[in-house]
């Protein structure tokens, strides 16, 4: 009997060290609208998240590097929605690409967000840094080494899905060629000023969903100013007025209509409501074709120079770095 009890105790101890079960009745697919949290002030993001979740949103886009996952988690905990009805994405930072670092990194995000599991965990950039050495490139860790470690996170019930972010087409192909658990989604910059329609169509062909970040183009205040602010752009103002909408709503609705998931960030209730209400706006075929002609092919987010790596090499508006400064990915 005592042997039975101690065997039972060992079994229970082993079970309790496993990740929690992921509910099978959670959201089937990623919701089309999410709330972004990059640059969301630490003292505002909890309210923004709670407000959004209590007013029609069910998807939060977070990341370790945003340094506000704990406050984002407070907003999630305070909301009326239950965990299974919320889609939560987070991202693996470049310093944790070594397979030995990956599980601890997701567990940190999970714990800060105050949940038991994620819905989607992305490799934030196809660039590995040496742990604890700033942006020093880790040339020994490949994208595939890191991808294999992400696959194990799904097997360990730490995340329902895995994906990628900021990958060039050739990087995506590299993962698709070998994946056992394949990318659910690719999150990258795309908006009216950087449409990348061919790249988006290609993702549909290979079965990877696209999450459109910075959907309001240069509205993010840290982005470049050598294009008119999207919200002041006469073409978009006229188009939005025709729909009785704001420019932000028109840009978000256009993102929905071309099949991308859209994740605008705001910490203002007014904008959070406004962006949610983009859902009913539709464009005709001719309007969609005309919007395509107004692509400026301007990329706002590109750390290639700072990191000394050639990012987005086969995509619109990449930087050509001098050969000697380019790191191998
Ligand atoms: N994977 C990646 O590498 C990556 C990179 C960039 C972004 N992202 C994700 O994508 C999210 C969105 O991108 P983003 O933050 O760069 O840019 P964004 O959502 O296109 O723009 C955010 C800016 O627009 C303002 N805004 C939002 N709605 C508005 C409205 N209806 N009218 C007027 N202004 C409005 C916000 O103001 P307030 O905040 O002052 O309300 C904020 O300054 C990020 O928060 C992050 O979650 C991911």
Automatic annotation (TrEMBL):
The name under which this protein is listed is NADP-dependent oxidoreductase domain-containing protein
Q: Signal peptide location in the record? A: 1-19
Query: Sorted alphabetically, which PROSITE patterns does this protein's record hold?
Result: ALDOKETO_REDUCTASE_2
Pfam families on file: Aldo_ket_red
Active-site residues, Swiss-Prot/TrEMBL:
66
Q: What keywords were assigned to this record?
A: NADP, Oxidoreductase, Signal
Q: Which family does it belong to?
A: Belongs to the aldo/keto reductase family.
What Gene3D superfamilies does this protein's entry cite? NADP-dependent oxidoreductase domain
| Span of domain NADP-dependent oxidoreductase | 33-295
Query: Positions of the site: Lowers pKa of active site Tyr?
Result: 91
GO MF annotations, alphabetized = oxidoreductase activity, acting on the CH-OH group of donors, NAD or NADP as acceptor
Q: Which InterPro entries match?
A: AKR (IPR020471), Aldo/ket_reductase_CS (IPR018170), NAD(P)_OxRdtase_dom_sf (IPR036812), NADP_OxRdtase_dom (IPR023210)
Report the CDD domains cross-referenced here.
AKR_AKR1-5-like
Q: Which domain of life is it from?
A: Eukaryota
> In which residues is substrate bound?
124
């Amino acid at each position: 009997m005592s042997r039975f009890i101690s065997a039972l105790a060992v079994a229970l101890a082993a079970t309790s060290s496993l990740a929690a079960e992921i509910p099978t009745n959670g959201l089937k697919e990623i919701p089309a609208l999410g709330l972004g949290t990059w640059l969301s002030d630490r003292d505002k993001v909890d309210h923004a998240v709670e407000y959004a979740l209590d007013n029609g949103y069910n998807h939060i886009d977070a990341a370790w590097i945003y340094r506000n996952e704990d406050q984002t988690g407070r907003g999630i905990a305070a909301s009326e929605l239950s965990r299974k009805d919320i889609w939560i994405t987070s991202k693996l930072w470049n310093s944790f690409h070594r397979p030995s670092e990956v599980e601890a990194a997701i567990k940190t995000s999970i714990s800060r967000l105050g949940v038991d599991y994620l819905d989607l965990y992305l490799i934030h950039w196809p660039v590995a840094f040496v742990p604890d050495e700033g942006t020093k490139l880790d040339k020994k860790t490949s994208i595939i080494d890191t991808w294999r470690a992400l696959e194990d996170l799904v097997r360990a019930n730490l995340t329902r899905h895995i994906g990628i972010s900021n990958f060039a087409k050739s990087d995506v192909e590299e993962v698709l060629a070998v994946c056992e658990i394949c990318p659910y989604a690719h999150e990258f910059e795309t908006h009216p000023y950087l449409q990348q329609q061919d790249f988006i169509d290609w993702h549909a062909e290979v079965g990877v969903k696209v999450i459109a970040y910075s959907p309001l183009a240069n509205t993010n205040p840290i982005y470049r100013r050598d294009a008119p602010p999207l919200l002041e752009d006469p073409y978009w103002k006229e188009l939005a007025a025709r729909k009785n909408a704001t420019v932000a709503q028109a840009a978000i609705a256009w993102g929905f209509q071309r099949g991308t998931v859209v994740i605008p960030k705001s910490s203002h209730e007014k904008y959070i409501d406004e962006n949610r209400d983009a859902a009913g706006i539709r464009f005709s075929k001719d309007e969609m074709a005309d919007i395509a002609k107004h692509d400026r092919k301007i990329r706002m987010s590109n750390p290639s120079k700072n990191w000394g790596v050639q990012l987005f090499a086969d995509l619109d508006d990449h930087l050509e770095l001098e050969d000697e400064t380019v790191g191998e990915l």
